[in-house]
């Protein structure tokens, strides 16, 4: 909602009319940042749900909240110069990778239970809970 309202405000500010694609460079930056965030959102939801269901809910929820804050930083950084959005982008990639690895660990644990009868769920939850605060390091 924040991204869409910024896009609408910038469109009306530049053109004086409704939402139009043609506009100033400020409008183009807002429009591009909004599109980038919209395109990354389905991937984020998929790995968030998989990590929460297959591995551990608390670290996945923490990483999900961190990702939302990082996307906000990316969007606001994109409104300035394009180089200001790079830290938010890289930080977001790291969080997506963490969620993906959590999903992979959950799938691996399922197959270890299925084929060998050994359950490493407690170890995986302990490791992911210990690693998730490391996501705060920029």
UniProtKB/TrEMBL annotation:
<feature type="transmembrane region" description="Helical">
    <location>
        <begin position="46"/>
        <end position="70"/>
    </location>
</feature>
<dbReference type="GO" id="GO:0004464">
    <property type="term" value="F:leukotriene-C4 synthase activity"/>
</dbReference>
<keyword id="KW-0434">Leukotriene biosynthesis</keyword>
<dbReference type="GO" id="GO:0004602">
    <property type="term" value="F:glutathione peroxidase activity"/>
</dbReference>
<dbReference type="GO" id="GO:0008047">
    <property type="term" value="F:enzyme activator activity"/>
</dbReference>
<protein>
    <recommendedName>
        <fullName>Arachidonate 5-lipoxygenase-activating protein</fullName>
    </recommendedName>
</protein>
<dbReference type="InterPro" id="IPR001446">
    <property type="entry name" value="5_LipOase_AP"/>
</dbReference>
<dbReference type="GO" id="GO:0031965">
    <property type="term" value="C:nuclear membrane"/>
</dbReference>
<keyword id="KW-0472">Membrane</keyword>
<dbReference type="InterPro" id="IPR023352">
    <property type="entry name" value="MAPEG-like_dom_sf"/>
</dbReference>
<keyword id="KW-0812">Transmembrane</keyword>
<dbReference type="GO" id="GO:0019370">
    <property type="term" value="P:leukotriene biosynthetic process"/>
</dbReference>
<feature type="transmembrane region" description="Helical">
    <location>
        <begin position="91"/>
        <end position="113"/>
    </location>
</feature>
<dbReference type="InterPro" id="IPR001129">
    <property type="entry name" value="Membr-assoc_MAPEG"/>
</dbReference>
<keyword id="KW-0256">Endoplasmic reticulum</keyword>
<keyword id="KW-0539">Nucleus</keyword>
<comment type="subunit">
    <text>Homotrimer. Interacts with LTC4S and ALOX5.</text>
</comment>
<dbReference type="Pfam" id="PF01124">
    <property type="entry name" value="MAPEG"/>
</dbReference>
<dbReference type="GO" id="GO:0005789">
    <property type="term" value="C:endoplasmic reticulum membrane"/>
</dbReference>
<comment type="function">
    <text>Required for leukotriene biosynthesis by ALOX5 (5-lipoxygenase). Anchors ALOX5 to the membrane. Binds arachidonic acid, and could play an essential role in the transfer of arachidonic acid to ALOX5. Binds to MK-886, a compound that blocks the biosynthesis of leukotrienes.</text>
</comment>
<dbReference type="GO" id="GO:0004364">
    <property type="term" value="F:glutathione transferase activity"/>
</dbReference>
<keyword id="KW-1133">Transmembrane helix</keyword>
<dbReference type="InterPro" id="IPR050997">
    <property type="entry name" value="MAPEG"/>
</dbReference>
């Amino acid at each position: 909602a924040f991204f869409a309202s910024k896009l609408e405000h910038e469109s009306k500010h530049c053109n004086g009319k409704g939402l139009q694609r043609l506009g100033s460079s400020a409008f183009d930056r807002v429009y591009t940042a909004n599109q980038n965030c919209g395109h990354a959102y389905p991937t984020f939801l998929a790995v968030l749900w998989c990590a929460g269901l297959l591995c551990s809910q608390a670290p996945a929820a923490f990483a999900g909240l961190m990702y939302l804050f990082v996307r906000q930083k990316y969007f606001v950084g994109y409104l300035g110069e394009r180089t200001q959005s790079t830290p938010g982008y890289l930080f977001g990639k790291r969080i997506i990778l963490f969620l993906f690895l959590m999903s992979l660990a959950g799938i691996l644990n399922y197959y270890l239970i299925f084929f060998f009868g050994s359950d490493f769920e407690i170890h995986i939850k302990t490791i992911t809970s210990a690693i998730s605060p490391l996501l705060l390091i920029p």
